[in-house]
Sequence to fold (302 residues):
Amino acid sequence: MSPDETKVGAFFDLDKTVIAKASMAAFGRTLYRDGLLSRRILLRAAWSQLVFLHLGASEEKLATLREKVLRLTKGWDRERVSALVREAMDEVVEPIIYAEALELIEEHRARGHRVVIVSAAPMEIVGPMADYLHIEDAIASVARVDEAGLYTGEMERYSYGPYKSEAMREIATKYGLDLSASYAYSDSATDVPMLEAVGHPVAVNPDRVLARLARDRDWEVRHFVRPVRLRDRVPVPPPVPTAAIGLAVAAAGTAITILRRRHRTAAILLPPVTKQAAAIAALTALRPALKRSLQSRPIPKR
Fold:
């Protein structure tokens, strides 16, 4: 290993780059089971995720969603949330980690690179995730808490867009990393500042905007398609039994498949405005199925 190799960083976005789902949505059932989320909120979250997946989420939409989440979590105990996430790690995350991401992480480690998880998700999710993958460093959003350790409904640090690249530069300074020789991996156009901060940007499962930008800038593009159980690579404790809302998750997966097929047809037959209307109509048609899935589950008792 050359001296220069020890100064290289490998920065991985989390959602749909290391894992196959959005981390905050993935832990929704855990919070529901513990009584922190209601069935109605879960239904709305599943609906919003389907819309964002098919129609995309602008910065304005994401900001609105962030404010709603902050209001929702006001008064929650941070330590309790963190403990719930750690306890549910095997159940929620272990089956949805991309094999290709694990292989890349292992490859970077073998070359002496410093691996860092970079996510807009809360540290209460990202920190345990990094520990689970044996990654020492994590960049994540931090919600403000009061003296009792309860969320105030305000954000202390939002790890999003340009804020990710700022945090990456801080990590680089801390460990003496050469960002021009470093790597960054992400699926979203919102992470362009993160990708621009390094010498080796890689678009992973890129959204349409990022795919076009990667093509224009001649960035490397990779497609991760093989979720793998971490236990197949590293021995881990037995999984916790799957709990409520499993049917809703299955319905969401089916909905996404149907929407993609309809999107391909609409792309040929319809102009852009009508295409968006068709997507909204398709999502609306699927909403009752999601609602029935959630209503079929008992309300958790505290």
Q: What stands out?
A: Strands lie at 9-13, 97-98, 114-122, 137-145, 151-157, 183-186, 200-204, 220-222, 227-228.
